[in-house]
Protein 1
Amino acid sequence: MTALQLPAGPSSQAATTGLSVAGFSRSAGCFGGDDYEVFPTRTGASCLLIADAMGTGRRSAHLVNRFRTEVHRAAHWTEAPAELLDFANRSLFCELDQADAFITAQIARWEPVAGILRLANAGHCPMLLGFETVEAVAPDGLPLGIAPRTAYEEYSLPLDPGS
């Protein structure tokens, strides 16, 4: 794995908010455009970021890293998943449009004190949630790079401890 590709996976901070995350990602080649990360927010919540840039290779890896950077920049003033996707889309639109590319993504924010998971989707496949029963959750939203201004829907789901 190269530095261009890091970090693809959860941070150690996720465990401190009562969030358990498991995942695996392996590129077909040296580089790839798939990524996921869990990072702490300034208010003690955890954000789960999942992204898939169109294509393969260095260009896709670069685009998904740019997306992650824009989400981290926006997280300094908002933690709302829909607003994070909106900011990333507006920041990356020209670059994605010129590259004739797009990024599908989801951002979920786990608020441990309130017991709420907030989720926004940018054209990505559904997130599967649950233990006893599994629920596919994917609010509406266009992939990043399709339109310069996109309103992303936010879905809120109360989660009981241990679910």
Protein 2
Amino acid sequence: MSTLGAEKTEDCEQETGFSIFMIEFHTKSVIINNNQNRHHASDHRLVLLTRRFASIIHQPYRRMLPDHYVLGKQKKEMGMQDTTFRENVVIITGASFGIGQHLALQLAEKGAWLALAARSQEKLNAVSELCAKLGGRVVAIPADVAEPALCQHLIERAVQEYGRIDTLINNAGIGMASRFDELQDLTVFEKVFRVNFFGAVYCTHYALPYLKETRGRIVGVASQRAKFPSATADAYTPSKHAMVGFFDSLRIELADSGVSVTMIYPSWVSTGISTRALQRDGGQTGTLSKHEKNAMPVEVCARRILKVVAKRQREDIMTFQGKAGLWLKLIAPKLVDEIARQSTE
């Protein structure tokens, strides 16, 4: 499948499914409103409706648009080369695999000057070599973003190499797969927060003076789960909620500085993150989530991120279901809770 086709062509399937859902939602709302005292019947209908909506949320990412549309789009993009990131100094954390790796590769093709950070020097070197072959200028800087001193070194090393910072992409993150009430202590919980939340805060803190000088861009790669509750109180969802709260507030603080803050909310992406999620003992799950098997291709996700970052957009909620879920959360929060519970593996 063409990733361009995959990127643009799920809407017909999603809109059809959601139309069915809306009909069911309206019908059952009338029934429930006319029988307010029949709580058990209402709860039963709510469960049925939840299962229907949950099945829509996890539809496979597979439908394509007609070939003539895809080809026309490709021709249009070939004739309109975006120079936004040419010689743009971009720092990417979590750049050794997944979304970070593909952001680096696509930015290299655009002629960006890259400072790539991750814990593994070997993996960073491999990605750096690929970026150099694609035309990008690149420096690999090993760093664990959970350590503030290493975040400071990352920023200073990038400035030493390029003389400035134009874009900071806070992408590093780890998952967690454990119930809160199963934790013997909070060691793993705190580790996830140090990477997902404080790692982004540390890097932003040290980079901000340079970003103000260039009127640059700050990017936070969060998760769709940062907009909704999760069925388990592991550290992943709370850390992403904290990340969003910080960057949304920072956006207001920096309103007159010329620095933009863009938040990214992907749903499941084919990165293998579920296999590396931490269990209560600190070990990785080693198991691929069923949701990730039909997830958005990582190169499609990276392309979309760069598109919204180039335009300095406020945020990008990447799925129709996520956008619809925000509306549903306002009028039926209990239903959203049920959807989260039904969707948990």
